[in-house]
Amino acid sequence: MSFEPFLLTPIPDHDKIDVYLKHGGYTALSKVLKERTPEEVTQEVINSGLRGRGGAGFPTGRKWSFIPKDTDRPIYLCVNADESEPGTFKDRELMLKHPHMLIEGAVITAYAIKCNRAFIYIRGEFATEAHQLERAIAEATEKGFVGKNILGSGFDLEITIYRGGGAYICGEETALMTSLEGGKGYPRLKPPFPAVSGLYLSPTIINNVETICNIPHIMNRGAEWFKSMGTEKSTGSKIFCVSGHVNKPGNYELPMGISLRELLYEYAGGIKNDRNLKVVIPGGSSVPILTADKVDVKMDFESLVEAGSMLGSAGVIVMDETTCIVHAAYVISRFYQHESCGQCSPCRQGTLWMYRILDRIEHGKGKMEDIDLLLDICNNIEGNTICPLGDASVPAVRSSIKYFRDEYEYHIKNKKCLVQLDQRFE
Amino acid sequence: MIDKSSKGLLSESSKEKIEGLICIFPDKQSIILPVLHVIYDQLGYLDSKAIKEAASITEIPDVYFEEAASFYTMFPLEPVGKYLIQVCHNISCTLMGAESLIDYIKEKLGIKPGGTTADGLFTLVTVECLGSCGTAPVMRINDTYYENLTKAKVDKILETLRNQA
Ligand SMILES: Cc1cc2nc3c(=O)[nH]c(=O)nc-3n(C[C@H](O)[C@H](O)[C@H](O)COP(=O)(O)O)c2cc1C
Ligand code: FES
């Protein structure tokens, strides 16, 4: 079956509104505003089976339907463009090359959830991307797709770009909202869920950039079309971000459920320098590693769980046989230690200790007991934190010990890596 | 030395931008982070005097700004070189040689991460994933991304910046 990407379509200059319009842009919006009620839009999205692309995979239409029907408060939409999960770089490409797809999706989503105010929370480092969105919103406003009385329908939507400040935690939905409310981005306990009490204590829907970009296509081509791609429970396409030791790293939009082997060898050009595959992290640094024998796993929500990992953000990080697993775990643990917001102690202390221990093992000062100590810390973090950042710091460490305990032992005994490290820059 | 204390650090255009932000959000407090961006865009770091000036324009107590400034790692809190070199050392970049890239820049500029060259041109820092892992190794200098780096590219980028300065 030949698959044509519709999110990462290869149309040149698709960021310009005229080109976007020429290729059917904003037709979904005008159809929706003329012919569909908000409830019908939500139902179509429910029927499509679309699940969130930000990491958790929650059914999108169902999330929208949790907005209380009788609320007298304003309803908000936050598009999550924080994209900070290591290994993930798809939303950046969507915003740079297809900003109008995101805007059209956001307007339709806002209509469905009866919201007149949307925010796009974009990570602070994405300055070019933020300007691109500002420019595209101005274009769309001028043509009447955003703003007051959109296309004469009586529906209003104001979209505001909100730039973050370089904190990974602000991609977590409750932290995103506290950040947007002003001040530090500390997560909140759930419940209440954002759909009931979110931004400024009002009902709020938070969706990932890629999730929102799917909406115009679902409205144009229908739920059945969307469901014809992927698997029964993971419908549609998915952008896989392939990085690390492959010949052609990059974003690949493919049907859900494609095999990891096909993704790596047919699309990403195979392993660099004809080396052997050692490990893949299939869903960003927060999910367990997969060893090379799992290369035939299907890349969808269910199959990856069965294989002992998760689809997460679909950041597919590829490591060849020259990668030292201890070194990789050390680098990843440094990230969580750096990004823990410090609000709750299991996460603040746990990530710090994990990093310190891995740092000493990596630098030849580890003790044999450190391996079990690491596992102990993992158990003490997991389930004991306010938000899932603590939990996210565990899988890389725990799974690397599970599959490569011998490498850890070698590292501690011999004060160096078991494998010949080859991470050169020339 | 020029005494800037009486004159204020914020430029007229920054002040205007901050004033323009005040009515945008449903809750005024939301302008804290956008205001930090304005200060950073003008000065390249978050000066505490500038924060006080901004706070008084917005009529929000400056402690809120200070708290946020210490939370968001993207903004330096002290003056840095004209070019802030931010090299990613997270996993995908490390797999593609980020550690030797950092060593290379260290040697080339004669500074360690956190340091600034004597001429005040370059400050080097390491940062976490920049969301550009498919084009690793990656660095960001001020607001610009530089991707798929090689030694030759780094040489050229630094030389161009030096000549521009
Ligand atoms: C620590 C942490 C970081 C996250 N970062 C992001 C992010 O950068 N982008 C994103 O879309 N979701 C991120 N999420 C997931 C969000 O909390 C939320 O589930 C998502 O934005 C919902 O949108 P979706 O249903 O469309 O996926 C993160 C979650 C956690 C726990
Ligand atoms: S790991 Fe360096 S940009 Fe993501």
Question: What order do the helices and strands come in, and which of them pair?
Answer:
The complex is a heterodimer of chains A (426) and B (165).
Chain A: H1 17-22, H2 27-35, H3 38-48, H4 60-65, E1 76-81, H5 90-97, H6 99-113, E2 117-122, H7 127-142, E3 158-163, H8 173-180, E4 204-208, H9 209-227, E5 237-244, E6 250-255, H10 260-267, E7 277-281, E8 290-291, H11 301-306, E9 315-320, H12 325-339, H13 345-362, H14 369-381, H15 389-414
Parallel strand pairs in A: 1-2, 1-4, 2-3, 5-9
Antiparallel strand pairs in A: 5-6, 7-8, 7-9
Helix pairs in contact in A: 2-6, 2-9, 3-6, 3-9, 5-6, 6-9, 12-13, 12-15, 13-14, 13-15, 14-15
Chain B: H1 12-21, H2 32-43, H3 48-58, H4 62-71, E1 83-88, H5 91-95, H6 98-109, E2 122-127, E3 139-141, E4 144-146, H7 151-164
Parallel strand pairs in B: 1-2
Antiparallel strand pairs in B: 1-3, 3-4
Helix pairs in contact in B: 1-2
Would you write up a description of this structure?
The complex is a heterodimer of chains A (426) and B (165). Chain A is an alpha/beta fold and 426 residues long. Chain A has three domains: 17-227, NADH-ubiquinone oxidoreductase 51kDa subunit (Rossmann fold, 3-Layer(aba) Sandwich); 237-320, Ubiquitin-like (UB roll) (Roll); 325-424, NADH-ubiquinone oxidoreductase 51kDa subunit, iron-sulphur binding domain (de novo design (two linked rop proteins), Up-down Bundle), CATH 1.20.1440.230. Helices cover 43% and strands 12% of the residues of chain A. In chain A, the strands form two sheets. In chain A, strands 6-5-9-7-8 form a five-stranded mixed β-sheet, with helices on both faces. In chain A, strands 3-2-1-4 form a four-stranded parallel β-sheet, sandwiched between helices. In chain A, helix 12 (325-339) packs antiparallel against helix 15 (389-414) and helix 13 (345-362) packs parallel to helix 15. The longest helix of chain A has 26 residues, at 389-414. Chain A starts with 16 loop residues before the first helix and ends in a 12-residue tail after the last helix. By secondary structure, chain B is an alpha+beta fold. Chain B has two domains: 12-71; 83-164, Glutaredoxin (3-Layer(aba) Sandwich), CATH 3.40.30.10. Chain B contains seven helices and four strands; from the N terminus they run H-H-H-H-E-H-H-E-E-E-H. Chain B has helices spanning 12-21, 32-43, 48-58, 62-71, 91-95, 98-109, 151-164, and strands spanning 83-88, 122-127, 139-141, 144-146. In chain B, strands 2-1-3-4 form a four-stranded mixed β-sheet, covered by helices on one side. The model of chain B has no long low-confidence stretch (mean pLDDT 95). Classes of the chains: A alpha/beta (426), B alpha+beta (165). Chains A and B meet through strand 3, strand 5, strand 9 and helix 12 of A and helix 2, helix 4, helix 5 and helix 6 of B. The complex binds flavin mononucleotide and FE2/S2 (inorganic) cluster (FES). FE2/S2 (inorganic) cluster (FES) binds next to helix 5 of chain B.
